[in-house]
Amino acid sequence: MGNLEYNSSRPPIQVDDITLAHLKVVIGTKLRRQESFMMTWLPDQSVQSGRLTTWMHPAIPLIFSFDSTAMPVIDPKRIEHMMELLNARGDLVLDQMS
User: Fold this and answer.
1) pTM for the whole thing?
2) N-terminal to C-terminal alpha carbon distance within the chain
3) Contact residues for 4 (Cβ-Cβ < 8 A; gap 6+)
4) Average model confidence (pLDDT) for the chain?
5) Which of 12, 44, 67, 68 would disulfide-bridge 3, Cβ 3.0–4.6 Å?
6) Contacts 24+ apart (CB under 8 A), 81-89
7) What is the pLDDT of residues 43-86, one digit of tens each?
8) Cβ neighbours of 17 (radius 10 Å)
9) What's the rounded Cα separation, in Å, for the pair 36 and 45?
10) In the chain, which ranges are E strands?
């Protein structure tokens, strides 16, 4: 289980390493193009209930922390699907990315 830390204002978002690797490509692509967007996820229910959404912006620090040292294999079709969903609704919904 890896972590996605955004703006260091909350506990990190826990995501499995394979999904995190795909998120890294999608988020990196959007932010490199200077395209801001929303990202929504379900937090650790033991810490907080409900759903969280944040505004992703190129100027805000972002850290991808992987448990494994091995780079996961990237599935281009999964990246394409994630980008299509994000571009269609302007929101990257993590619990729908699997």
Assistant:
1) 0.86
2) 14
3) 12, 13, 15, 20, 23, 62, 63, 64, 65
4) 87
5) 12
6) 82/22, 82/23, 82/26, 83/26, 83/29, 86/26, 86/30, 86/37
7) 766 666 778 888 999 998 899 999 999 999 999 999 999 999 99
8) 17
9) 27
10) 2-6, 13-15, 37-41, 52-56, 62-65, 91-93
**Six-digit token string for 44:** 């650790």
The C-alpha atoms of residue 20 and residue 24 are separated, in whole angstroms, by 6
The Cα 17–Cα 68 span in angstroms is 7
Angular region, 84: left φ>0, alpha ψ -120 to 50, beta rest? alpha
Is residue 30 within 8 Å of 79, Cβ to Cβ?
no
Query: Quick one: pLDDT at residue 9?
Result: 61
Q: Name the DSSP letter for residue 45.
A: T
